Amino acid sequence: MARKVHGGVVLSQTRKLLLEYDTEEVGRLAREKPVEKKALIKAFTDSSDVVRERALIAAIDVADPTIVTDIVKVLEDDTTNVRIAAAQALTFYHQPRTIPDMIRGLKDSSPWVRSHCAAGLSKILTGPIWARIPEESVEKILDDFPDMDDQEINKFLSSIDMKPGAINRFMDWRAKKFDIEIDVTSLVEELEGTPILLSGEIRDSSAVADSTSVSGLSEDVETILSELPDEILSTLPPEDLRRLTPKSARELVQKLKVSLPTTEKKKKKKAVKVRKVTKVKKKTAEPTTKSLIKQLPPEVRESVSDETLSTLSTEELQALLASSAPESVETEEADLPESVIEYDDPRMTEFVEKYGEEKANLLITIPEAMLEGIPEEQIKEMDMETLEGLKQALEPR
Fold first, then answer.
1. Would the CA dihedral through 180, 183, 187, 189 be positive or negative?
2. Of 119, 155, 113, which is closest to residue 137 (Cα–Cα)?
3. Are residues 67 and 151 in the same domain?
4. For the chain, how many structural domains are there in total?
5. Residues 23 and 53 in one domain
6. Is 68 within the bounds of a domain?
7. Burial readout 151-183 (b: 16 or more C-beta within 10 A, e: otherwise)
8. CB atoms near residue 236 (< 10 Å)
9. CA quadruple 65, 69, 75, 81: dihedral positive or negative?
10. Of 320, 343, 215, 216, nearest in space to 271 by CA
């Protein structure tokens, strides 16, 4: 392995890059060369806490879920920033075998570690707001579950609002003592999209089966796919359909609908007329990353480096706020002119209340029938760029 001189000291290439905070390059090298991946894993236990922290950040750029078996070993590091980086990496990969580790992370002294672990658990075990699960409930899962029978565990998980499907998965993984094979394909699909969506092609129907006969599809995925005509469904490869999630299924349906023939004439976008009524009202603005960071308690902001802070998403910041000071966190409000806006199209008022005015202005241009099959939660999660793409995809051709 190449070694470089850094400050008069001979260093490995990996360690040198980490000290220079070139984590993306470290991740690239580790993806391409097994020897570089070994060097990165070795850096998890480096004598320098800076190197350990950045090595764990680089572990995300490796895009290899198998690395979680080494990440969990440093989740109890003495340095807070190192534990935060480890928790963030586990959240990125969200592998079922790391569930016990992330649940233990909910008891960490750092609110950042707790928030990352909560976000990771929310991706695997849906339903509970993990950032707000009481400590006694966390301890019950860790300490009492080994001696509880399945019925008692099922009842407890239901009491914390875990969804039935998530409960079934948890019980299955628990029976296997969370010794679950690491799923590499799921990450590839998240990063690159499913083969169907990437290719943009429809395979010959003689080589595939009707999706309605494909086993292993969730009810949500089946419902979404049912929006497509049978002749289109019959061309979709079963092996790809089985890997669809509700989110990727929705993306697939939206993409395929663009190519469907339509007899409708393209409608002109209807202008939304607005009139103002004298009255005072305050509208709540959607939180931004900047506003969420401002709401963090001083002790929380001082506990981590700016580098780590800059990598957090809005979702992670909200989870952090919930776990660090749930009673004191308030949504930032924006003072609007002293008036209530009324709209000629009744849908506009509903859209503004649910999604905010910016999204509402886009949604109102989409025919109502086109929006019926899209869950409200999915629309709320879309950013403006995604929503703009949705609008273009749904426009009649």
1. negative
2. 155
3. yes
4. 4
5. yes
6. yes
7. eebbebbeebebeeebbebbeebeeeeeeeebe
8. 23
9. negative
10. 343
What is the chain's alpha carbon radius of gyration, rounded to the nearest angstrom?
24
Q: Which residues of the chain have pLDDT under 70?
A: 1-11, 186-216, 231-232, 234-240, 242-243, 255-286, 305-307, 310, 324-344, 369-370, 372-373, 392-397
Neighbour-count burial of 75, counting CB atoms closer than 10 A to its CB (0-12 exposed, 13-18 middle, 19+ buried)? buried
CA-closest candidate to residue 110, choices 328, 358, 391, 301: 301
Q: Are strands 274-278 and 9-12 parallel, antiparallel or unpaired?
A: unpaired
Residues 235 and 151 in one domain: no
Tokens standing for residue 94? 């969200």
Cα–Cα distance list, 331 to 165, 320, 337, 354, 376 (Å): 32, 14, 19, 15, 21
- What is the residue range of 291's domain? 286-333
Q: Which two tokens stand for residue 279?
A: 């009255």
Q: What angle do CA 99, 103, 105 make, to 5 degrees?
A: 115
Q: How many CB atoms lie within 10 A of CB 314?
A: 14
Alpha-carbon distance values, 99 to 157, 181, 188, 263 (Å) = 14, 13, 20, 51
Residue 22 C-alpha from the chain's centroid: 24
Question: d(Cα 237, Cα 355) in Å, to the nearest integer?
Answer: 35
**Closest listed residue to residue 51, CA positions, set 92, 13, 4:** 13
Which CATH number is 153's domain given? Answer: 1.25.10
Specify the pTM: 0.51
Q: Which tens digit of pLDDT belongs to each residue from 302-336?
A: 777 666 776 777 777 777 777 765 444 444 444 44
Amino acid identity, residue 173? Answer: W
CA atoms within 13 A on the CB side of 372: 6
